[in-house]
Each structure stands twice: as structure tokens, then as C-alpha cells.
Design a protein that fits this description.
three-stranded antiparallel β-sheet
Length: 307
Amino acid sequence: MSRLSAEKVHSLLKQKAVFKAEITHVVLEKHKAFSHSSRLARYIVSLANGQTKYIRANVWPISAFRIAEALSAQQSLKAPQPIYYDKSSHTILYEELNGDTLRSVPLTAKAWKPIIPKVAQLLAAFHQTPLPKGLAPETQSAAKKRRKNLVQGIQKADKGYGALAKVACSQLESQIARQAGKVKALTHGDFQASNILIAKKNLSLIDFTLSRPNHPASDLGLWLVHWQAMTRDHLSHTQREELGYLFLQYYFSAVPKAWHAPIRAMLPVYVSEATLEVAATTLLMYGAHDTNVRALLDELFSSLHYV
């Protein structure tokens, strides 16, 4: 990405009146995670009152910027506050949120039980955000191509899992086509622990690059499958099932009743789609011969009954 100079960022922050205190100086952080080959940059902003703030610059599509704008107007959830969007380089500036991702939470039932309801309510609030103008859903052809690539990746790594993936993909595509348009909401597209921050027991949501209008069950399926994969070696099957049901219980309590039946009908379908994604990623990273990977994939492909 093309870097915005520290002077340019200083000028933009002053122009937008982002901070109440005077800005004394802005520095582009020198760190390997924010190198010139990276798509991400971070600026250290020093204020006259002694505070230090951090501004992120990232490459986002204009749709993600519009979503961030819509979310910043919501009182029911916290998300990055967009400051500026440079159309020529597709670079967004936003104030960095405090907190670690949910990946940092100990993988115990005791640690997660009070967090799960907040995660469900965060997703419910996101789904009920009014759709920004000009936001288009993924086309059927693009979705089919994406799923085809997932299946091909799984087949290359392991023929057995590839056969399962091919059947699952064929079934879910026909079911998704029949349900198209029945319930549509703003969906995150990558709703998992890595994209949720926690600070002082409060949650905030980040990364809207894959967000678009879609069936809300797509985000639920993704969360449940990622949760299964993340906690498999740390929680018992019973504990994972109980926390999965708890997540759904709080989610359904926070969305319109008219959504309940359509979401329950499509949740197994989107669990299958999320399984394809997690399987492809897992096989690519760890290989088909890893015994832990095979045990995880067997469990994912066998059954995930939450409805």
C-alpha cells in the first residue's frame, strides 16, 4: 500500500478534529509488522495533554469503509471509528481500539461462559445495523468459484476429505439457492475470535473487508465451526456443546422473532460451508498426515448439531 506521510496524517487529524487536545507530533511507527511491504501501517500520535493515541492505516474496499461509518453511528456495539478514506490507494485511517483479541482468553469453560453471551449479542447488533447504500451481496458465480477453490484445495491435500467436501458443497449450494433473499442482513464474513477485541470485559468488532449483505446464519455457522476448531483440545465435547447452545440462545433473544425459523433452517447449511473453509485452511497449514488435524477434521465433518 502507498504510505501516507506522517505530515499528511497530522494534517488530516487536525482537519477532522479527531482529538480535542492539540496534536504535538505524528510518527510512522518503525516495526516489522508495519513494514513498507505490509498492507498495514500504524502512526503514533502525541497530544499536548500528555496522551498518546494510535492511528491505523489499512487497505480496505470502499464498502468496508462505509460499514465502519455505519457502525460508528451505532450505540449498541463498538467498532473502529473511520477518520479518512483515500480512494486512489484504498487506504483507510481509523483510531486503534484497545484490547486483545478473544484468542488471548484462556480456553476454559469458566473463562468463556461469561463472554459467550456478549459475543452473541455483539453479532446480533451487527446483523441489525442498517445496510449502507451501494453495498452489494456476493454474486452466485463468485460464491460458487470460492467454494470450488475450497473443495479443490481439500482434494489436493487429501482425497478422502475431498470427496466429503465435494458432496457437502453440492448439497449446500442447492439449499442456499432455494433460501436466497428470504432473510438478508449485514454479515461480517469472518466472525471469529481473531476479529473480536476484549478490553475491561467489553467487546468490539474489527475487520470488515469481507462484510456484505448475506444470510445471518452464515456468521453463526462460521463462529460455531471456528469455536469447535479452537477449543477441541481444551474443552470436553459436552462443554463445547453447552457453550454453543448458550451462544445461540443469546443470539436468538436479541434478533427479531421472524428471523428465528429461517436461521434455524439454514444454520446446518452454513455450518457445512464454514467446515469447508476451516478444513481447507487447516490442511494447508498443517497437512493431512497430522493426527491432530485428522481428528479435528473427522469431528468437523461428522456432525455439528446446534439446531
